[in-house]
């Protein structure tokens, strides 16, 4: 009898330890080993080369699409979706005075790009990034209007400054490395801002290699809550 009890208990303990080993604890959205790579202002003629780099490394990113760039680039929008990336909204014109002119103009631009993306992909998304970041012109009235229209506003915590160092990759790479390290120290996930028109395939390749060597994991922003923005930044992970 005793033997049987011991046997049953050992089986129970074995199964218990196996099941715990098989199911790793899911990472929190703000886990410091996570990188959310975001690419703004596309699609354009450079998007394809960046998609090639992402594909090579099996990295998925989030593309904040500019409405005025959709026409003629529908194939790129479809490719972004087909290759498992997430598509999101970045307004229509990228003209600061037009977008932020009033809460109505901001909402209208987001709704316009939302509709265009729906027409091309069948995807309806409310994930949005306002041009130059939410601290560039969002008043409390803008926030309220965006919220009422159902948009979730995303900023970033790693600015690659690729649009400033367009010709030279080194400062872009070093800046991203430094910011990734700082966020890791702070125990928080990284959201990298880069641009379809400025990030070079070489710089993107180098950044991804750097991150993978350090066991970072790239994810899209799909299903991630709450949205990170300058007015509601994430707390460091426990
Ligand atoms: Zn932009």
- Provide the list of bound ligands, each named once: zinc ion
Radius of gyration: 21 Å
Low-confidence runs of at least 5 consecutive residues: none
Range of strand content: 5-15%
Domain NodB homology: 33-219
Signal peptide: 1-21
Protein name: NodB homology domain-containing protein
InterPro entries: Glyco_hydro/deAcase_b/a-brl, NODB_dom, Polysacc_deacetylase_ArnD
Q: What does this molecule look like?
A:
It is built from 8 helices and 8 strands. With 238 residues, the protein is α/β, with parallel strands linked by helices. It has one domain: Glycoside hydrolase/deacetylase (TIM Barrel). The protein is globular and about 80 Å long. Zinc ion binds at residues 40-41, 90, 94, 131.
Keywords:
238 residues; alpha/beta; TIM Barrel; binds zinc ion
Could you provide a short overview of the structure?
The chain is α/β, with parallel strands linked by helices and 238 residues long. It is built from eight helices and eight strands; from the N terminus they run H-E-H-E-H-E-H-H-E-H-E-E-H-E-H-E. It has helices spanning 2-22, 47-57, 74-82, 96-99, 103-121, 140-148, 169-186, 201-213; strands spanning 34-40, 62-65, 86-89, 127-128, 152-153, 158-159, 190-195, 217-219.
């Amino acid at each position: 009898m005793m033997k049987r009890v011991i046997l049953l208990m050992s089986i129970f303990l074995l199964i218990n330890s196996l099941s715990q080993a098989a199911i790793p604890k899911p990472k929190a959205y703000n886990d410091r080993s996570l990188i959310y790579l975001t690419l703004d202002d596309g699609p354009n003629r450079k998007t394809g080369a960046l998609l090639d780099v992402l594909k090579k490394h099996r990295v998925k990113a989030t593309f904040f699409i500019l409405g005025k760039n959709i026409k003629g680039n529908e194939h790129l929008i479809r490719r972004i979706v087909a290759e498992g990336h997430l598509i999101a909204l970045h307004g229509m014109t990228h003209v600061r005075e037009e977008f932020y002119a009033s809460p109505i103009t901001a909402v209208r631009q987001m709704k316009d790009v939302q509709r265009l993306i729906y027409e091309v992909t069948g995807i309806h998304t409310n994930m949005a990034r306002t041009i130059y970041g939410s601290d560039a012109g969002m008043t409390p009235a803008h926030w309220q209007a965006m919220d009422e229209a159902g948009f979730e506003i995303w900023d970033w915590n790693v600015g690659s400054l690729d649009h400033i160092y367009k010709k030279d990759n080194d400062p872009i790479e070093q800046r991203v490395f430094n910011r990734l390290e700082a966020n890791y120290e702070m125990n928080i996930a990284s959201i990298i801002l880069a641009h379809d028109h400025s990030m070079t395939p070489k710089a993107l390749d180098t950044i991804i290699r750097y991150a993978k060597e350090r066991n970072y994991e790239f994810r899209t922003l799909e299903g991630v809550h709450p949205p990170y923005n300058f007015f509601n930044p994430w707390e460091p992970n426990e």
